[in-house]
Amino acid sequence: MESSLRPVVSLKALFPDAHFVGAPDIHCSACDSHPESDRTDWVFAAGVSDWTAADRDVVAAINHGATAILTEQLLPSSVPQCIVSNVRDAYAELSLALAGNPCEKILTIGVVGTHGKTSASLMVASMLKRIGKTVAYFTDLGASNGKESGLPCESNADSLSIAEWLQQSVDNGTPAAVIELSDDMLRSHAASGLEFDVLVFTSLRKCQRSDSLQSRGVENAMSRMVQQLKPHGVVVYNADDARLNRWIARHQPEAISYGLDAAADVSGRRMRAMKGEQSIMVSAGNCIAPLTSTILGDHNARHMLSAIAVGYTFGLELYETVQGVERLQRLPGRMQRVPGDGTRSVYVDTADQADRLAVALHSLSKDGTPVVCVAEVPDAATPEQLAAYGRVLERAASFVILTQSRRSVRFGQKSVWQVLDGCERPAAIQIVPNREAAIEMAIRSSRSGEAVLLAGWGASRWTTDRDRQGVSDIEVGTKLLREFCEEPQLPSIVAEEPTLKIYRGRTA
Question: Quick check: helix, strand or coil at residue 281?
């Protein structure tokens, strides 16, 4: 966008309580938190990053044309400064103001929680796309501005990236936008200033990764998010999550519930389904409708109900919202079935924590199906979390192959032993560091009626000795299934049925 077409924002008008040094007011048409920005007429937000020194960044920013500084403290600078109480919140508000306040022109749905945010976001987007023909979304698995899909998206996106994505979505005439609010976004206040029509709260289970925002931090962030609801805004929450129920009872926002087991405004009842799919009977208000999906698991059924609950808040017809959710028959790396001829059932899931692995294994084995599991040793996990991962593997899978692709054998060996510490029979677990070899072993050793779960990587890519460009579980599994089907099948050897011979003595 040309500078002449950008809105010019007065920081005095936007931050009336701010203190200005070097000028009575600051006007700008751009901002950035990176000191090497190539923008024009821009304000540098100092102190947004935890990894750099603000005073050094100021010098670099001025050398790159910054005309003013947005900061929490007075800094040595030759350009005017705007001093605010919280630079991250101020940076987010300034980014949105420079983007033309897009939340005022588009339905904005935020998805928050410790688990299931990506799946719920994509299902909400699928439902809205069925109704409105186009929708924008911003998730860990990619983004869309309503016109272009598959756009790169990072879980640690900053305020400026979010504001520019919303601006593009508005410019493309998109009626609604769905944004997954990751732990990094909550931690950095990247979503401050956004105004939401609906907030979806998926869960408040304790997170089992040592590098994740803990559930208490998510609770605090949820309280901030509720304050960012529009006057007509509504919270949609998972009634099956006990901790989330307590949070709702404590804060009492305007809310609509969904769930499979608990009483809820939008509820689902499990129905019998064919192998490889699940069916639920959905009820909302006085209406009921059946829903069938190839995305397995109770956790995914709840995500489907969350999307239907969002439609319910907008007053949409139940059959329309159900059809919108049914359109989405595949989530990349989330209980995704590897394409094949049907003789082998191979699934890929991102399960990199003990609780997520337990959910994935239960989804495949709840009807008595034995599961062969290729599991990646979790990264950034404590010894206790690794041992819990091992316990889940031993108890829920019929055969386990453990791989270690994120680290070398030398440095990953300790983590492997810590996973085995959680097993009562560690000798029963196969250790195959090469993931491609482990997947081949699992597929070839699986028998009819068994399912194979490739856990730990999801849709992400990993490298092999032969392919340094990186491959995914889906690619490797598809190739191996194709090779397996093309191999000539050896004729089966049918043993003669043994017969009982009675000796009657010598005949005359």
Answer: strand
Domains in the chain: boundaries? 3-98, 102-326, 336-486
Instruction: Give a three-class secondary structure readout of 226-264.
Output: HCCEEEEEEEEEECCCHHHHHHHHHHCCCEEEEECCCCC
**CATH of the domain spanning 336-486:** 3.90.190.20
Whether the Cβ atoms of residue 271 and residue 280 lie closer than 8 Å to each other: yes
pTM of the full structure = 0.85
pLDDT in tens, 180-223: 999 889 888 999 989 999 999 999 877 655 455 565 678 888 88
Q: Tokens 């609010």 sit at which residue?
A: 181
Task: Judge whether 453 and 373 are in contact, CB under 8 Å.
Answer: yes
Q: Is 198 exposed, middle or buried (0-12, 13-18, 19+ CB in 10 A)?
A: buried
Q: What is the CATH code for 3-98? A: 3.40.1390.10
Rounded CA-CA distance 501/33 in Å is 90
Helices (H) and strands (E) in the chain, counts: 15, 25
